Amino acid sequence: MKLVPAPLAVALLLIPLAGCSDDNGGPQLLTVTVTVADHSYSPLTVTIPVGSTVNWNWTGVEQHDLVWSASNGPAPAPLQPTGTYQRVFDTTGTFGYFCSVHIGEGMTGTIIVQ
Ligand SMILES: [Cu+2]
């Protein structure tokens, strides 16, 4: 096995990072965290450029899930008291979701992908 010279190895590592820069004037990809608290998602609405990632992080003591409003949406997050859930948004649009247990208390959220 041939070893890659150190300067070349560093350069190769930097190539993927260059794709995330804003040098070309395009939108910068974001990774946003939404808190799943007891009876609310925070922030309620997140606006992100297409290709960005949203991570949901459970912080309450009760159990909550995350169900997409669209019938053809991706798999929901299960009912759980703690944990995380992640989705990458590859298409533009407005994506609503809710907690199936607490929707009656207004536990809903919206992701706007531009
Ligand atoms: Cu809930």
Overview of this structure, please?
The chain is mostly beta strands and 114 residues long. It has a single domain, classed as Immunoglobulin-like. 11% of the residues lie in helices and 41% in strands. The protein has one helix spanning 6-18, and strands spanning 31-37, 40-42, 45-48, 53-58, 64-68, 77-80, 83-88, 93-98, 108-113. The strands form two sheets. A five-stranded mixed sheet has the order 3-9-8-5-6, with no helix packed on it. Strands 2-1-4-7 form a four-stranded mixed sheet, with no helix packed on it. A hairpin with a 2-residue loop joins strand 1 (31-37) and strand 2. The model is unreliable at 8-22 (pLDDT under 50). Bound molecules: copper (II) ion. The site of copper (II) ion has 5 residues, from loops.
SSE order and pairing:
Layout (H helix, E strand, L loop, with lengths): L5 H13 L12 E7 L2 E3 L2 E4 L4 E6 L5 E5 L8 E4 L2 E6 L4 E6 L9 E6 L1
Parallel strand pairs: 1-4, 3-9
Antiparallel strand pairs: 1-2, 4-7, 5-6, 5-8, 8-9
The protein binds copper (II) ion (CU).
Copper (II) ion binds next to loops.
Q: Approximately how much beta-strand content do the residues carry?
A: 35-45%
Give the domain tally: 1
Q: What are the secondary-structure elements, in order, as H or E?
A: HEEEEEEEEE
Task: State mean pLDDT (0 to 100 scale).
Answer: 85
Q: Enumerate the spans where pLDDT stays under 50 for 5 or more consecutive residues.
A: 8-22
What is the C-alpha radius of gyration, as a whole number of Å?
18 Å
Helix-strand makeup class: mainly beta
CATH fold title: Immunoglobulin-like
Helix share bin: 10-25%
CATH superfamily: Cupredoxins -  blue copper proteins
Q: How many helices? A: 1
Number of DSSP strand runs? 9
Q: Strand order of the main beta sheet, please?
A: 3-9-8-5-6
